[in-house]
Amino acid sequence: MNVAVTLQFSAETKNLPNVLEQLDTQLLAAGCPEDARMQLAVAVEEIFVNIANYAYEGKLGSATINIKADAHKATVSFADSGFPYDPLKKEDPNIEQAAEDRPIGGLGIFLVKEMCDEVHYERRGDMNLLTIVKKY
Amino acid sequence: MTYEITSPPPDLTVTVQGRLDTLTSPKLESELEPSIAQAKNLVLDVTGVDYLSSAGLRLLLTLQKRFKREGGSFKLRGIQPGVMEILRMTGFLKILSVE
Hints:
The structure holds 2 protein chains of 2 kinds.
Chain A: E1 3-10, H1 16-30, H2 34-55, E2 62-69, E3 73-80, H3 108-115, E4 118-124, E5 127-135
Antiparallel strand pairs in A: 1-2, 2-3, 3-5, 4-5
Helix pairs in contact in A: 1-2, 2-3
Chain B: E1 2-7, E2 11-20, H1 24-37, E3 41-52, H2 54-69, E4 73-77, H3 81-89, E5 97-98
Parallel strand pairs in B: 2-3, 3-4, 4-5
Antiparallel strand pairs in B: 1-2
Helix pairs in contact in B: 1-2
């Protein structure tokens, strides 16, 4: 079935379990298969945690998450009113490096790009809008 | 996320169940620190781990660097398909020892 919901959360990492639970409920209702649900959850975690940790620079803010899904595709959009930041401009990590040379971290947005079919960023007014699309 | 120490140091084996995410991975790392500090080798049995985000990858890379630097070994055991795919995407299968 088709699902379409808009959810608002205080942008704090402690809300992550709630965010992922609501996401999974919607994706299950839409008929999204298990492997895609896991990958979408990881993508949503990476983006939500980025907003919680960096968008408001220590101040409390919110994140609005819009989920649209059916049996073939999910589109998840994130809006925050934090500082302008396009995470897609971040350089991809070198995944061929040896363990001792690899930096700790920097894999979150790379994972989002790898697991989703489309990722778009847009600055609209005072909002950061990031949209991911995954087909399954 | 829950875990159990199934073999004590120096050949430490830890069996983990559940999710390795932003909230659980730092918790696992800090709670295991006393055992890891005494370990020569570490096996992380992840047969029961069905979810891995970049925070979990951060933990795995930290452990890999640490055991390699100190002349020991770090191995992952029982990787599930969804977790395997994330390790493959990020190049971690090339840098981790997998049983």
